[in-house]
Amino acid sequence: MPVREMTEADLPQVLAIQQQLGFQEWNEREFIAEIRASYALCVVFEQTNSIVGYAIFHLMGPDSELLSIATCESEQGKGIGSALLNAGFERLDFANGDQVFLEVREGNEKARKFYEHHGFAAYAERKKYYSDGENAVLYKKA
Ligand SMILES: CC(C)(COP(=O)(O)OP(=O)(O)OC[C@H]1O[C@@H](n2cnc3c(N)ncnc32)[C@H](O)[C@@H]1OP(=O)(O)O)[C@@H](O)C(=O)NCCC(=O)NCCS
To answer: How many Å lie between the centroid of ligand 1 and the Cα of residue 111?
Structure first.
């Protein structure tokens, strides 16, 4: 199974993907805090010894959150993001009230389509949420 838990040794590759995509600016310390947090699920997708995607969830039943998900540019559209998302979904019990929340830039059409395809529904907007003034759209999957 190419999806496995992230370790601190994976961080150079994870940070390189984040930098390539430029969608988020977490530093190494922030990733380490997530890896060590008991409520967090941090996963990577590994392909022939190289990491091509990762996702970070906070698994807290009805207040679960997807904090980050990314697939390196060259491997997008091949089901890697879906596999990473499913690794989180497998730990949740939607039939018994678990829910996952996330926020995404309004203009990130690719991610919004991806989330909608996986059963997320937009429920609110936060005006000028990001530092560059872009709105955030809040999504929930129940
Ligand atoms: C959003 C993101 C994580 C999706 O990752 P991905 O690996 O491309 O995801 P998938 O390949 O599973 O799905 C993407 C699309 O490819 C399609 N797809 C899935 N498997 C496929 C396959 N084997 N072959 C071709 N297409 C496929 C999916 O149906 C989906 O299409 P849809 O969105 O129109 O339904 C990726 O685009 C990304 O990293 N974006 C930049 C970072 C970002 O914006 N992250 C989210 C904000 S936090």
So the answer is: 7
- Single pTM value for the model: 0.94
Task: Give residue 96's identity as a one-letter amino acid code.
Answer: N
pLDDT in tens, 69-90: 999 999 999 999 999 999 999 9
Say how many Å lie between the CA of residue 130 and the centre of ligand 1: 23
Show me where the domains of the chain are located.
Answer: 1-93, 99-142
| 1-93: in CATH 3.90.550.10 | no
Nearest CA to ligand 1 atom 41: 70
Measured by CA distance, the residue closest to atom 5 of ligand 1 is 81
78 lines ligand 1 (CB under 6 A): yes
